[in-house]
Amino acid sequence: MGNVNYSDKIPNNVNLSSDRKLQRALESWQPNFLDWWMDMGPLGFQQDQIYLRTAISVETDGWAHFDYVKMPDYRWGIFLTPPKNSRTVAFGDDYGKPVWDKVPGNVRKELRRIIVTQGDTEPASVEQQKLLGKTAPSLYDLRNLFQVNVEEGRHLWAMVYVLHSFFGRDGREEAEDMLVRRSGDDDSPRILDTFNKPIDDWLAFFCFTMFTDRDGKYQLAALAESSFDPLARSTQFMLTEEAHHLFVGETGIRRVLERTCQLMQETPNEDVRSVGGIPIDLVQRYVNEWYSTSLDLFGAEDSSNAASYFAQGLKGRFRESSKRYDDHVALKGTYRLRKPVNGKLEEEDVPLRRAMNMVLRQAYIEDCERGVLKWNAILKKHSIKSAIKLPAEQFGRSQGLYANMPFDPSGQLLTQEAYDARKDEFLPSTEDLEYVQSLMQPVYEPGKFANWIAPPTRGINGHPIEYRYVKFDEHVRH
Ligand SMILES: [Fe+2]
Ligand SMILES: [Fe+2]
């Protein structure tokens, strides 16, 4: 189970060749996936040799193999964490009963919706990041972008495998639709709004991988607890890959701030714009934007869906089966929400199960805060007084209790006029976006970095920072 079979057309550790029908169905989806990749994957780099990691086992130690590969030749496949003997339902009404190998009829619709919603985000992010290779600040970053992209493609495979194997014709149709919707398309957009937002520059990319991919981590972690065992095992291995995406985001912003500090110290009046750096307040506005849109992904604060997903054993809390929680049924207890009533926030206790989105989100926020602390340690090290702050949960929301209300980042409710007048203080202005765009000039020389970002502390897989992480095809001009 640990090792992956690479002699099959579709690499897998699920003994795919023993199920001819499933194998044929997935093999007929495979060329459509490749067409989608060529059409919507990274533009202009499909012929180049990228130093990528590929999963060769699902064991946590030594699962990855690194080598040069052209992206269209990447071996996308199906890798599930091995089953645990006698795993039992970890939460909800059926707590303690055996987990399911098949989809129970009474939760089929809900499970399909959960899997499709998760699956849809994977190709969406590849589409959002399609043009970024053209402006990469270094070969190291270019390679990381493509690593993230191919693995999001593999995450799509993970969800499509579950749909094909367990949802019959509906599942096959959903898998087809996954390659039809397009991020930002007016007629056929991706399912969740955040995945229709453009990612036009690398600062947005780092914020996305820091905050939006991290939502992905928590959604996957909730599904890794699922009573539907094949889904739990698929998402468990996705989480192993996901860690690198979060690393790219967190260290990306850290390196931007590091460089900003250096430039501030070298420049009179600390005017980093005059020397091509990214000011801290501008980074803060990007953080405000991407953090708040990522909070939206957790869904409504008070949610009957969340309650029934928990009751039915579909979506658990973060690390539900660890020691984090004593009570896995959660019929007792409440959660305190702050609901806006006539322009004021009033506290209200809701039954704990209805607040499961919030419980999951709370774990996410703590994780984000850990990352921000590390960023602020950089500023402190350079004796810079300002600090990056996560905005209040009410700010900038399009979903839930505070949707479209004019809160400022500190959580004060403004009048709509006051909000509109100050909007450019809170979120990236047109001028900010244009300035950042003006910095986006590619740097493709090994070991060199764009002026607005510091080098990383180390390279990939033990290689030096100046390693040639991407070897360009000599016939393609970049
Ligand atoms: Fe993913
Ligand atoms: Fe990711």
Mean pLDDT across every amino acid position: 96
Spatial ordering of strands, largest sheet: 2-1-5
Please report which band the strand proportion falls in: under 5%, 5-15%, 15-25%, 25-35%, 35-45% or over 45%: 5-15%
Query: Helicity level, as a percent range?
Result: 40-55%
Query: So what's the oligomer here?
Result: single chain
CATH topology-level name:
Ribonucleotide Reductase, subunit A
Plain-language structure description:
- The chain has one domain (16-471): Ribonucleotide Reductase, subunit A.
- Helix content is 45%, strand content 7%.
- Strands 2-1-5 form a three-stranded antiparallel beta sheet. A two-stranded antiparallel ribbon has the order 3-4.
- α3 (139-166) runs antiparallel to α4.
- It has 478 residues and is mainly α.
- Bound molecules: fe (ii) ion (FE2) (2 copies).
- One fe (ii) ion (FE2) binds next to α3.
Task: List the defining traits of the structure above.
mainly alpha; 478 residues; globular; 3-stranded antiparallel sheet; 45% helix; two-stranded antiparallel ribbon; binds fe (ii) ion; Ribonucleotide Reductase, subunit A
